[in-house]
Hints:
The protein has helices at 3-12, 26-37, 62-72, 124-134, 154-168, 176-182, and strands at 18-21, 41-45, 74-75, 81-87, 90-97, 106-107, 110-115, 118-121. It has 190 residues and is of the alpha+beta class.
Amino acid sequence: MTITELQNIIKKGECETVEFKSSFNNELIETLVAFANTKGGKVIIGLNQKSKITGVNINSESIQNWVNEIKQKTSPALIPDVALIEIENKIVLIFSIQEYPIKPVATRGKYLKRVVNSNHTMSLDEIANEHLKTINSSWDYYPDPNHSLEHISFDKVHHFIKEIEQNSQTKIEFSALDFLSKLEIIRNNQ
């Protein structure tokens, strides 16, 4: 990243994919987790909440120690890319993370997602759905063990088929049961 690119990001301010931090802390790790669970993003260390460049003090091992801490405090382990930029005689660090392919990611038992410009704790349903989406599945893919075919209102299915026929001006030649099977609402009579 160039100084000009950094200045443009700073001008635009925090958003769904950018967060400013004055120092390395657990909130930074939470933000990386939220980014990994959403669209990815960048955490810029060395800026205050008013987007003023304050810089960050580092030594020869700071960056590696921080990356190791992020890795140890996240599950699955996140390893962000880190860029160091000197601007206005101050050091600014940029921690970048891509959207993680296996979701959700957690830190210290917390699952977070990014909404607009803040981190939000995920509900149990959101956690489960993110995991199912990751493995190309969803809750409605699995058979419902609490209901059987006798619980289906075939009158409603017939009504639904008639609505489709009217709206599409085509005739559906399947029985209600076959129609539900074609839509994969019923599989193996479940």
